[in-house]
Amino acid sequence: MSQDYWSDAARILIKVYHLGVLKIFKALRYTYLCTSRLSISLCFKLVGLFGVGETYPSKPSTE
């Protein structure tokens, strides 16, 4: 039982690690694209579109 638990935990950790690394590379790539070629507003659209900035709301809040 403990072996199954550890293999599941390791699998989850590896998955989280890979997702984190991919997100960092994505963020760096889009940051480079934004600073080199794209306009700021288009950059934010891309970031929202590809889910790099999940902390930002995808739609502006209507108040």
Automatic annotation (TrEMBL):
Tell me the protein's name.
Uncharacterized protein
Q: Which domain of life does this protein belong to?
A: Bacteria
Q: Which organism is it from?
A: Desulfitobacterium dichloroeliminans (strain LMG P-21439 / DCA1)
